[in-house]
Amino acid sequence: MTLKSKLMAATTGVALMAGASASAQEITVGYFLEWPMPFQYAKAEGMYDEAMGMTVNWVSFDTGTAMSAAMASGDVQLVVSQGVPPFVVATSAGQDLQIVDVAVSYSDNDNCVVSAALEIDKDSADELAGKKVAVPLGTAAHYGFLKQMDHFGVSLDSLTVVDMAPAEGQAALAQGAVDMACGWGGALRRMKESGNVLLTGAEKEELGILVFDVTSGPASFIAENPDVVSNFLKVTAEANAMWADEANHEKMLPVIAEDAGMSEEDTMATIETFVFPPVDEQLTEKWLGGGAQEFMKGVADVFVESGSIDAAKASYETNVNTGPLEAAAQ
Fold first, then answer.
1. Which tens digits make up the pLDDT trace of 49-78?
2. Which end of the chain is more exposed for a tag (fewer CB within 10 A), N or C?
3. 328 to each of 26, 117, 232, how far by Cα in Å?
4. Torsion over CA: 42, 45, 51, 55 (sign)
């Protein structure tokens, strides 16, 4: 199966599925394990349920593409920390999703790792030609992989690309089944035990490879439940503000670590590479005031050029809804 057919298979029928549904008493929210964030303190402490006056059910996912499918089926109403690339893949295929906040920025926590046995670094990246690579298709890691290969002049046709979730890619890299693997979070941390990254986060940003995740949901659900979404975002912002004060780390870290399924040491090592933009910053031109929309168009165009998706939208402006976040800031 080709790279394009694999990616499109993940989104086949998404545009035709029903939107999201939820009762007035509860909603379901998706998130990632081994991806520690302040919201998980609020999650574990019941802060969302209390502030929203309803039960918030939580379900974990391995990839952002799976999140899109769950929202399309109506099983999930909101997702926290969905990567921009899988969001772009879904909306380009016709799924009516909207971004409601910037969950986290993490240029150092999403990357590709080359097997140590190959002794390949950024100065010899052309030696990747002919190698086998594990990539979670349609994700931020996929986008970063495409941009890095373009930067190094490595033809995609020269590579064998295997669609694997980060944890699967990490295991394959450790076993020598693949030569390079791409991913994030705990899986990326373990990948580095088997090899090295080609570019640092700062080096990627210099190439315009931004890496950030969003809170997103079906446009229909957001339109019908603006107060629910706004209250959810307000709790998230409160948790981020708590974490920004180092005095709260001692009480928050153990809770976040347990909820993320990680040790406290690994949790801190991961979360220290994250940036959680405050609400006022999110609403600026850099992010939801225009920057995110432009970035999504760039991601889509790269995916079209690589043959990963059929076409990009003319604009992704309608896929950002700042209304609930603006209300949360009041």
1. 999 999 999 999 999 999 999 999 999 999
2. C
3. 20, 50, 8
4. positive
Backbone Cα Rg of the chain: 19
Q: Are strands 55-61 and 26-32 parallel, antiparallel or unpaired?
A: parallel
CA distance 183 to 274: 15
Both tokens of 311, joined, read 């076409």
Q: What pLDDT is stored for residue 208 in this prediction?
A: 79
d(CA 65, CA 7) in angstroms, rounded, equals 9
pTM over 0.85: no
Q: Are strands 180-184 and 212-218 parallel, antiparallel or unpaired?
A: unpaired
Residues, the chain: 330
Q: Could you read off the pLDDT of 210-234 as tens digits, one per residue? A: 889 999 999 999 999 999 999 999 9
**Paired residues of 105 in beta bridges:** 212, 275
Alpha helices by DSSP H, listed for the chain, are 3-11, 39-44, 47-52, 64-73, 84-92, 140-152, 166-175, 185-191, 201-206, 219-224, 226-244, 249-260, 264-271, 279-282, 291-305, 323-328
3 state DSSP class of 289:
coil
Residues forming a β-bridge with 275: 105
How many C-beta atoms lie closer than 10 Å to residue 33's C-beta? 16
Alpha-carbon span 282 to 288, nearest angstrom: 6
Taking the C-alpha atoms of residue 43 and residue 58, their distance in angstroms, rounded to an integer, is 9
Q: For 167-205, give the DSSP string.
A: HHHHHHHHHTS-SEEEEEHHHHHHHTTTEEESS-HHHHH
Residues of the chain under the 50 pLDDT cut: 1-6, 8, 10, 12-20
